[in-house]
Amino acid sequence: MYGGYANRLAFIDLTTQTVRYEPMDEALARKYIGGRGLGVKFVLDNGPQVEPFSPENLLCMMTGPLTGTQVNMSGRMAVVTRSPLTGTVTDSHIGGWTAAKLKWAGFDGLLFRGKAERPVYAFVENSTVTLKDATDLWGLGVRETVHTLQQRHGAECSVMAIGPAGEHLVRFAGWINENDRAAGRGGTGAVGGSKHLKAIVIKSNEKQMPKPPDAATFKVARTQGLKAIMSSPVTAPNKGGLSVYGTNVLMNMMNVVGGVPTYNGRRSDFDQAEAISGEAVREHLLVSEPTCHACPVACKKEVEVKEGPYKVRVESFEYESAWALGANCGNGNRDAIAFMIDLCNEFGLDTIEMGNALSTAMELQEIGALDAGLTWGDADAMIAALTKTAVREGIGDLLAEGPARLAARCGHPELANVVKGQAIAAYDPRAVQGMGLSYATSNRGGCHLRGYTIAAEMMGIPQPVDRTVTEGKAALLKTFQDLHAFSDCLDLCKFSAFAESAEEYAEQYTGMTGIPITPEDVLTIGERIYTLERYYNQLAGFTQADDTLPPRFLKEPGTGGSAGMVSHLNEMLPEYYEVRGWPNGVVPEEKLRALGILE
Question: What is the distance between the alpha carbons of residues 410 and 368, in angstroms, rounded to a whole number?
């Protein structure tokens, strides 16, 4: 087998409590690489009509060939399944040390099907998976679950778990590990809950780190990648904005251009943005700067509120969370945001979807369509509603369905800022035209990470692009989408793309696996993955009509630095379909054959 792979997959049937081991199929590994790509292939082969909460749905925990190696920023794992929030195929990536330790334990992936009769957790060690009783853990929060399992199996173990939200099938529940890292989006934790799978415990060490077939070639490639990271104005350790302030360095930057959706998107700037920005967090709350496996950037910012009603210590105060639970809800209380982030981690909730559910409820309340006891900026009411959401109590039962279903049930679907059922993130598409196209064409619903055009439109990476124009955005987005799809297969942190290009990715993949590829191959493989996902969604019933934005962003002008602007999505979509080779948004058979998806 090629370098970088453990050459072992575990197929776990939770219904029969059996585990089958198989080597990695080399043809599939070359075509779909690993991580996101291979996970999506397995989920597609399992059937796009499978109901998300049915035992037949497949839940994949996939590493890539660079996961757990000496390659920088290689501590990611893809959780892939059919989403109970959107009905699309979805993948969500978790950082920290879980992915590296899974590779070191001897696995490229764990694939779960079926439903256990009673709660279980998977214990992974020495190329073996054992299912163990988790009845005593059911009902516990994530931290108590992690603590209990580390006491039981060793403090060196990595534990990823669902909280009460996953157990109660909250449609946007995620997986959280011992480092407060999350596979947050798409409801993958709810799929775990539907299967009575409480946690995965991994015991291993770096002595089992994969080795390249040609150490000299790999060393050159890794050194070049590290050089790019160290010299980037974004990722340079202790110098770049991401390293110094974390992801929340974006708060002030986006607010200046009117790019922060506020009050459920009724405005695109927030008058309290400075108070919840990365700069303010560093000055007032920062206590530690931990990092993930093989990452010199250390973008995580552990914070502590030392006194008052929101006393808490949590990792990390991310931009998306600060926006979703802050500006989006008219909440400028920095301490309360930290407290709510901690609650989301403990309950196993996606902060982005949770914040959007709350903001949707606030606007519904304001127009008299819902009685939820929620008003703009009322942090204590938000905390109460969030807590109820995790266990589907009272108003929480509605919120647990996500903003799309919530708004529809209240007769105002237009108030949910979602695409394909999943909420958008912290970038207003009126301010950044490429991001609007990215949201609309995302294969997993509203998402900023499928094609991060913000890099070019706001940071000038790889070169500056005018955020206000539509020309050329289709080709730009396709490149970002294909590049990110490939890096998600490796599986590298998305932030590596602030410094590394297809060239660095190709060289490091070649150096580790021994399979020679070019930068052009990187983009072709990425296109294959992106098209595979589109094909899955097409078979699941999604059409061109689903490639749209919430009406607010198409009709209601932005404010602040984007005053008078709207998203011109309809000007970009035809060009996007053309560069993709998808007539009217449909993936034709000839495209599937050209990319090797169909033989």
Answer: 10
Q: How many Å apart are CA 129 and CA 197, to the nearest integer? A: 13
Backbone angles phi, psi at 460, to 5 degrees: 75, 25
Q: Could you tell me which residues are beta bridge partners of residue 419?
A: 422
- In this prediction the pTM is 0.98
Cα torsion 484, 489, 494, 499: sign: negative
Model confidence band, residue 9 (pLDDT cutoffs 50, 70, 90): very high
CA dist., res. 166 & res. 457, Å (int): 36
CA separation for the pair 442, 423 (Å, rounded): 12
Q: Average pLDDT, whole number, for the chain?
A: 97
Report d(CA 261, CA 259) in Å as an integer.
Answer: 6
Residue 159 — φ and ψ, nearest 5°?
-130, 125
Helix (H, G, I), strand (E, B) or coil at 118: coil
| Angstrom distance (rounded) from CA 544 to CA 476 | 20
Helix (H, G, I), strand (E, B) or coil at 157: coil
The b-or-e profile of 249-288 (16+ CB within 10 A means b, else e) is bbbbbbbebbbbbbbbbbbbbbebbebbbbebbbeebbee
Which of these, 82, 76, 75, lies nearest to 60 by C-alpha position?
82
Alpha carbons 34 and 489: distance in angstroms, whole number: 5
Distance linking the first and last C-alpha atoms of the chain: 23
> In DSSP terms, which residues pair with 418 in a beta bridge?
423
Q: How many residues are given for the chain? A: 599
Q: Which of 439, 422, 437, 444 is nearest to 533 (CA)?
A: 444
Q: Cα dist. 498→65, 297, 452, 486 in Å? A: 21, 11, 10, 15
Grade residue 206 by pLDDT with cuts at 50, 70 and 90: confident
Q: Which of 385, 387, 391 is nearest to 371 (CA)?
A: 385
CB distance 192 to 12 below 8 Å? no
